[in-house]
Write a structure and sequence with these properties.
Blueprint lengths: L6 E14 L2 E14 L3 E5 L6 H8 L7 E6 L2 E2 L5 H11 E4 L11 H12 L3 H14 L15 H14 L4 E5 L7 H17 L3 E5 L3 H5 L3 E6 L2 E4 L16 E2 L5 E2 L1
Parallel strand pairs: 2-12, 3-8, 3-9, 6-7, 7-8
Antiparallel strand pairs: 1-2, 1-4, 4-5, 9-10, 11-12
Helix pairs in contact: 3-4, 3-5, 4-5, 5-6
Amino acid sequence: MQTDDAAAIRGVNLAKKFQSGGNELVIFAGLNFEVARGERLALVGESGAGKSTLLYLLGALDRPSEGTIYFGQQDISQFSESELAEFRNREMGFVWQNHSLLPEFTALENVMMPMLIRGTSVRDATPVSLARLDEVGLRNRASHRAGELSGGEQQRVALARALAGNPTVLLADEPTGNLDFRTGEMIVSLLGDLHRTHQLTSIYVTHNMSFAGSCDRVLQLEQGILAPWNGEGWLPSRPEREQPMILGDGGNYV
């Protein structure tokens, strides 16, 4: 595969396999794709297709069973555990369906956490964290503990936390999944605004097709194959023109 200097992330011949009761369970194999710098990419597909598994690999939270993940020109598949932890803290911002805030800490303390882990002092982390809370409209809730916030407010704090360390890539796994429609639409709009403001590369896993449709590109993961979504819902099969290009190694490239 030719390399692309404009690619933020490249997956080359990626596979993820698990052992289950003496059998090998293949989630996907032979995936090849690129995510351009500054792109908003949505990953869609039925539950259990492996979307979150793929997102974990791209975020360096797990390792592929086979294949290579490049961040720019760096092969992060070869990083040690400590190198991966530092890489995640420096380059990646994460937002989950469950906001995963620490309930005993305030909104401000939750947002500061990635910087404190990095070694930034509380004095230096505080103004940056307040600025991120201001961006999501919650500066006036900075001193409130996580449990005192609504679900939508908690997810906005999670967004602020994801951006506190000034990442280059934002990964979100069903960020509207636990929210009502109106609050979910507000989070979708906010994700778009923050993507532009912070010049991010963003990858979202979602079942919200309206959200997916607002992105630059939508890929569907189905039966281990990653291909462009045709905009018409889940497809039991695809016409030939929509099949991904088959590479010499048997993988597919999107």
